[in-house]
Amino acid sequence: MSPARARRRRIRLGVLVSGGGTNLQSILDQCRLGKIDAEVAVVISNRPEAFALTRAQRAGVSTGVVSPKDFPDRERFDGRLVEVLREHRVDLVCLAGFMRLLTPGFIRAFPERILNIHPALLPAFPGLEVQRKAVEHGVRFSGCTVHVVDEGCDTGPIVIQAVVPVAPADTADTLAARILKQEHRIYPRAIQLFAEGRIAIEGRVVRVKRAAAKDRALVNPPLADPKRPRPRVKRAARSHKRTR
Ligand code: GRF
């Protein structure tokens, strides 16, 4: 870690999970390596069996389980989540495979300070099973999006996206795996942009301060066909040439 980065304040993350936690792992790894100015203060799951909790424990991070079964309604369930996040003095909430919609009360508790990662190029394919839907729809590109969470389902202002080509032989699983690799790259980057105070939200548009412009278009299938293999020169002809 550079001395300048070591001196910078590290923002405290609260990560909400429900499943395997590969995005959590990429965030933990980037924090440990000092690649982002952040530390995971707490990981909370709504499911006690989520493997993401094991990943957090292995990294020495506090964990909590808040089960919806223990609360009479969504508001009180979310209220408990807010309490735990506040106890850990969280600056930024990261949803990483958290399979629940947040109530307005939760969103008001962390205004413009909740991020989510979604495995499609929003606003296309919000919701669930989106990799399968992308393959079935026949799109040539899909990808992933980190966005600020608002009260809708996958509707909030977009921070960063990665475009992933869809191959003719793709299934939902192969596409999901290719997209997931990009999720692991863009989520830590979005967190770092937040930590550096470079995210400004204007209506539904996020301005990323000092971001380079991208101007190269992607085309799939590519405009150029693959090069045909060159016709093979006959051996006899080549040896004849050499003897001259
Ligand atoms: C990811 O595809 C994420 O985009 C979606 O749920 C999946 C979670 O994966 N919201 P993991 O638990 O981070 O491995």
In brief:
With 244 residues, the chain is α/β, with parallel strands linked by helices. The protein folds into two domains: 1-111, Rossmann fold (3-Layer(aba) Sandwich); 116-244, Rossmann fold (3-Layer(aba) Sandwich).
Note the main attributes of this structure.
two-stranded antiparallel sheet, binds 5-O-phosphono-beta-D-ribofuranosylamine, globular, Rossmann fold, 244 residues, alpha/beta, 9 strands, 2 domains, 7-stranded mixed β-sheet
Which helices and strands, and how do they pair?
Blueprint: H1 3-7, E1 11-17, H2 22-32, E2 38-45, H3 51-58, E3 62-65, H4 74-87, E4 92-95, H5 104-109, E5 114-118, H6 130-137, E6 141-148, E7 158-165, H7 172-195, E8 199-202, E9 205-208, H8 235-243
Parallel strand pairs: 1-2, 1-4, 2-3, 4-5
Antiparallel strand pairs: 5-6, 6-7, 8-9
The structure holds 5-O-phosphono-beta-D-ribofuranosylamine (GRF).
